[in-house]
Amino acid sequence: MVGQLLRFIVTGALVTALGVGVYALAALVLDWHPQLANILAYLAAMATGYVMHSRWSFRDHGTRTRSTSIKFVVVSLISLGLNSSWIAIMTGPMALSPAWPILPMLFVTPAVTFVLNRQWVFA
Questions:
Q1: CA separation, residue 81 to residues 20, 52, 87 (Å)
Q2: What is the DSSP letter of 30?
Q3: Integer angstrom CA distances of residue 63 from 27, 115, 122, 123
Q4: Please, which pLDDT band fits residue 81 given cuts at 50, 70 and 90?
Q5: What is the pLDDT of residues 12-23, one digit of tens each?
Q6: For 24-45, b where at least 16 C-beta lie within 10 A, e where not — what string?
Q7: What's the per-residue H, E or C state across 51-100?
Q8: d(Cα 79, Cα 75) in Å, to the nearest integer?
Q9: What is the C-alpha to C-alpha distance for residues 94 and 73, in angstroms, rounded to an integer?
Q10: Radius of gyration of the chain from Cα atoms?
Q11: Is the pLDDT higher at 10 or at 30?
C-alpha cells in the first residue's frame, strides 16, 4: 500500500496540477465562469488520470475490467461534484475570488479520490 500511495501522490499531483492549471487559466486568466472552467479542467484531468492511475498508480492492485472503467468514471464524477461544490460555496454565499476553491481542489478532493480509487475502483 505504501508504494501505491507514493505512486498515487506523484500521479495525483500531476493530474491535480493539470486540472488546477486548466481551471486557473480559464477562470482567472480568461475570465470564464468558474463552473465552466471546472468542467474543462475535469475533462483534461479525468482522461489523463485514468491512464496514469490504471497503468502506474494501481498497476499491481486488482484487475482492469469494464467495471473498473465505469467505477473510475463514477469517482471522477464525484471529484467533479466536490470541486463544483467548492466553487459554488466559495464564489457564491462566501463571495470569495474564484482562486479560493483551488485550496480544497488541491487537498480535499485528492484525498477523497485516493480512498475511493484504492478501496473501490482498483480493489
A1: 15, 21, 10
A2: S
A3: 38, 17, 7, 8
A4: very high
A5: 889 999 999 999
A6: bebbeeeebebeebbbbbbebb
A7: HHHHHHHCCCCCCCCHHHHHHHHHHHHHHHHHHHHHHHHHHCCCCCCCCC
A8: 6
A9: 30
A10: 14
A11: 30
CA distance readout (Å), 10 to 7, 22, 75, 113, 117: 5, 18, 19, 14, 15
9 membership: H or E segment, kind and range: helix 2-24
Report the distance separating Cα 26 and Cα 72, nearest Å.
25
Which pLDDT does position 61 carry in this prediction? Answer: 60
Q: What is the pLDDT of residues 41-78, one digit of tens each?
A: 999 998 898 888 777 776 666 566 788 889 988 998 99
**Surface-to-core class of residue 18, CB atoms within 10 Å of its CB (0-12 exposed, 13-18 middle, 19+ buried):** middle
Query: Letter for the amino acid at 118?
Result: R
The label of the residue with cell 482492469 reads 64
The residue type found at 105 is: M
Residue among 111, 91, 75 at smallest CA distance from 23: 91
